[in-house]
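To whoever is on call:

I kicked off a structure prediction for a single chain this morning and the downstream step that reads the tokens threw a length-mismatch warning. I double-checked the sequence; it's 141 residues and nothing unusual in it as far as I can see. Pasting both halves so you can look.
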Amino acid sequence: MQLNAALISVEGVLADGEAAGPGAAELIAALDERGVASAALTDGPSAPARALLEALGIIPHVLVGADDVAKPRPAPDLLFRACEVLGVPPWESLVIGATESDRRAAEAAGGLFAGLNAPGAFTISNLPEALAILDGAGASR
């Protein structure tokens, strides 16, 4: 299975309140270097999440918020919309999140789930560990 996109939850993963999640900026930069598309997903509105991520220097290719879809997680709508905009099928995406609703959304969309200190197909203890999953799956370069 080749993975061509990383879909990352803003809440508790990319940003924790007003601070960047540990390794978040490094992960986005490494994805760019590898040619892997990135999307940030939020169950809140897009505008505040965009402002927060920009202030933290975390700039994914796409940001999809609850105001962009009919249903928030655990429905797969956020993931489907991100994949549509990125031009990547959901089954070629690695979903990185920290909650049960992140995992359920990934499963419903057909994406592979990496849980940050949470159970999933993979459990990671920091964001840069997701790169090994992408590399092992033959991510785009």
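Update from on-call: the warning came from a stale cache, not from the record. Cleared it. Sanity check on the structure: Residues 69 and 77 are 6 Å apart (CA to CA).
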